[in-house]
Amino acid sequence: DSGVTQTPKHLITATGQRVTLRCSPRSGDLSVYWYQQSLDQGLQFLIQYYNGEERAKGNILERFSAQQFPDLHSELNLSSLELGDSALYFCASSETAQNTEAFFGQGTRLTVV
Amino acid sequence: DAKTTQPPSMDCAEGRAANLPCNHSTISGNEYVYWYRQIHSQGPQYIIHGLKNNETNEMASLIITEDRKSSTLILPHATLRDTAVYYCIVRARTGGGNKLTFGTGTQLKVEL
Question: Which of B34, B45, B53, B58 could be bridged to B49 by S-S, CB 3.0 to 4.6 A?
Answer without folding.
Answer: B34
